[in-house]
User: Fold these one by one.
Assistant:
Number 1:
Amino acid sequence: MRRTPLSPGTLDSVDRAIINALQDGFPVSHRPFAEAGAALSLSEAELIERIGRLREMGAITRFGPFFDAEAMGGAFCLCAMAVPQAQFEDVMTLVNAHPEVAHNYERSHRLNMWFVLACEKASAIEKVADSIERETGIRVLRFPKLKEFFIGFRVAA
């Protein structure tokens, strides 16, 4: 997990176009990288290399599908923890070891670790959060979704 911002100019216009295009979906085909690359005027190999580089530098944290756990009968829950800075890396490792943790972000306030639990059953949310509390000794605050919002992320291209 990248903990510092990228310096200005790290991303070129092609990197920015890739990030923006991939927010809208990814082709389901025999050669999805070739198809997505063509739409960006890139070769299949160049798109794969650039996505790998974006991951390595921390510009993107993951590349893959986002499954709607609720649509499949499961549940989501936003969680937060107040983690002492000296323990942050260790706690992050413990939290991220749970396959139900979909995202994990550091924030610069008292509740400095935020993550999303995505579970096959709603009852599993409490079990996983309780397990994280036992492992870390830190309370996990739970913020269940009351209303869904769709936000897009775009970078200036």
Number 2:
Amino acid sequence: MVLSIEGCFPALSEQGFLVDMNDWSEEVARELARVNAITLTDAHWEIIFFIRGYYLQFKHLPNARVFTKAVAKQLGTDKGNSRYLQRLFPGGPLKYACKLAGLPKPPTCL
């Protein structure tokens, strides 16, 4: 897969994750969402910015369970539950939140 953002072509892994998280921008996230058939809403952006902040703070990605608990702790239990996150990112909340946030593929994702 190749992304073209305003004449730039950020490198992607075989599974569509950015190779260099410094290539991330909101425009890159929008294009990644488009090619992954996700229509971004404010709720998506909230989770995308949350997981970017988590990664920058802790220097690692959580597993799915820790991700859900961390969302609940920071954003509330109405958002920090698997049903809510699955509705936003049906193919796998942690995987697609990380992909759209320009982060590495979580080690626990297939």
